[in-house]
Design goal:
Blueprint lengths: L8 E6 L11 E5 L16 H37 L1 E2 L2 E2 L4 H29 L5 H26 L9 H9 L9 H10 L31 H5 L6
Antiparallel strand pairs: 1-2, 3-4
């Protein structure tokens, strides 16, 4: 922990962000500071490892945030659509809008159940890194889609800064960036099944006396490895 009353610490300008404006963000400077030894957290030289480990907790925290926000945006949009009369009928009567909302609600429920699954894994002491990465990726993509789609349903009103949906639209964009961008999540997910290392050949178990090509370890190579191109870092 770095005390802010020690010489060398300085808070620079406050950064002007697109969203999450209720949370101040600024540049911090640490210039030749001497920190007391008792302020050390964990083991010296392992700060990066500790940071990487805590990322899983940070990424998981974004998941319930995503499905709660998404449901709230939809609920607000539905109320607006009920009262917005176009050509003599409320917009909620438009089948295309109802179907869009129905698909979102289905994906939101899937995301929530995945979050519960991760909790069960963590309670059982299992490594949930893969599931957390998948859920974090889906959270960012889904929340961005719902925010954009709901704002569209408001029409011109959604473009106004004093509308709640415009704030949701700005704030939700962080979920696919903060704690590990969606591209990073994709890379983590791809490495777990071994896409990077696996050869792209079909899966089969070679019968006795045949010239089949099992993997180097002697085990059959899954068929999905053949169907999906190798991912290079």
């Amino acid at each position: 922990m770095v005390p802010t009353d020690i010489a060398g610490f300085q808070v620079s300008k406050k950064l002007d962000k697109l969203g999450m404006r209720s949370s101040d963000t600024a540049e911090l400077y640490f210039d030749d500071m001497r920190i007391p030894a008792e302020n050390l957290i964990g083991r010296e030289g392992e700060g990066f490892i500790q940071q990487m480990m805590q990322f899983q907790h940070e990424r998981f925290s974004a998941i319930p945030m995503a499905y709660v926000w998404a449901r709230q945006m939809i609920a607000d949009a539905v109320e607006y659509l009920k009262g917005r009369i176009v050509f003599g009928k409320p917009l909620i009567k438009k089948q295309v809008l109802r179907h869009r909302i129905a698909k979102w609600l289905t994906e939101i429920e899937c995301l929530q159940q995945l979050a519960y699954h991760i909790v069960r894994m963590k309670m059982a002491g299992q490594d949930a890194t893969l599931m957390i990465s998948m859920a974090k990726l889906k959270s960012g993509d889904l929340l961005t889609e719902v925010a954009d789609g709901c704002l569209q349903m408001y029409g011109g009103m959604g473009f106004m800064n004093d509308m709640k949906i415009s704030r949701f639209y700005r704030d939700s964009r962080l979920i696919s960036i903060g704690g590990g961008a969606s591209e990073v999540m994709c890379d983590v997910i791809a490495k777990f099944p071994g896409y990077k290392e696996a050869p792209c050949i079909p899966s089969f178990s070679a019968p006795s006396g045949s010239t089949g090509s099992p993997s180097k370890t002697g085990s059959p190579i899954p068929l999905w490895v053949f169907c999906i191109p190798m991912i290079q870092s």
